[in-house]
Each structure stands twice: as structure tokens, then as C-alpha cells.
Design brief:
The chain has one domain. By secondary structure, it is an all-alpha fold. Helices cover 79% and strands 0% of the residues. It is globular, with a radius of gyration of 16 Å. The two termini are 21 Å apart.
Length: 117
């Protein structure tokens, strides 16, 4: 059964940063030195996905500004907690694990790009 993907638009800059990271990770003997760069990309992808699927849909549903601000604040607090833990986990990963995470991310993006063609 083919893998299903749920895609959202990302900036050309973010896409390029992901491809550059992939090249750097593949070339690096010590992939762990790219953990913080990987963390930043994961954070930026999270922002783009949350904005596309949740914030923009709430705006289209025309919820009030106060409710929208409450949701945005809740996302910010929750994301900050999740990313604090995630950052520590990424920094503790082995080179092999960093390579796997980067590969999965790139494979997902490339599969989405193939679908667009």
C-alpha cells in the first residue's frame, strides 16, 4: 500500500535549507554536529504546518480575534515545551539517528514534489 502524505506549502528558503542540511549530514562523519540545525528546521516546519492547517483554517472560519489570539498563545506555549524536550533529544542522538531523521524529512519532501509534477 502506498504511503499517504499530507503536504503543506513551505517557503523556497526552507526547502533549500532542508536540501543543504541533507548534503551536509550525508557528507559529515560526525552527523551530530548538525543536530541544532536539524532542530531549527523541524521547528520551522512545525510553524509552517500549524499555520497552514490550523491558524489559517480558523481565520477562514472567521473566529473572533480574541479566540484566535488564545489559540496562537496556546500553540506557542505548547510548542515551546515540546521543542525544549525535542532539542535535548536531538542533541543526544547518534550520528546514525541524525542521518535517519534527516533522510525521512527529505524523502517526505521529495515525494511531495514528485506528486506536484
Amino acid at each position: 500500500m502506498p504511503q499517504q502524505y499530507l503536504g503543506f506549502p513551505i517557503s523556497a528558503d526552507l526547502y533549500q535549507r532542508i536540501l543543504i542540511l541533507q548534503e551536509q549530514v550525508e557528507a559529515a562523519e560526525n552527523k551530530r554536529k548538525h543536530a541544532l540545525q536539524l532542530f531549527q528546521i523541524v521547528s520551522d516546519l512545525s510553524d509552517a504546518g500549524l499555520n497552514h492547517y490550523f491558524i489559517e483554517s480558523l481565520k477562514k472560519a472567521k473566529i473572533g480575534k480574541i479566540k484566535l489570539m488564545a489559540v496562537e498563545n496556546a500553540i506557542h506555549v505548547g510548542k515551546k515545551a515540546i521543542l525544549t524536550v525535542g532539542k535535548q533529544i536531538l542533541k543526544a542522538m547518534t550520528s546514525e539517528q541524525i542521518g535517519i531523521i534527516t533522510g525521512v524529512m527529505v524523502d517526505s519532501l521529495l515525494d511531495l514534489k514528485k506528486e506536484e509534477l
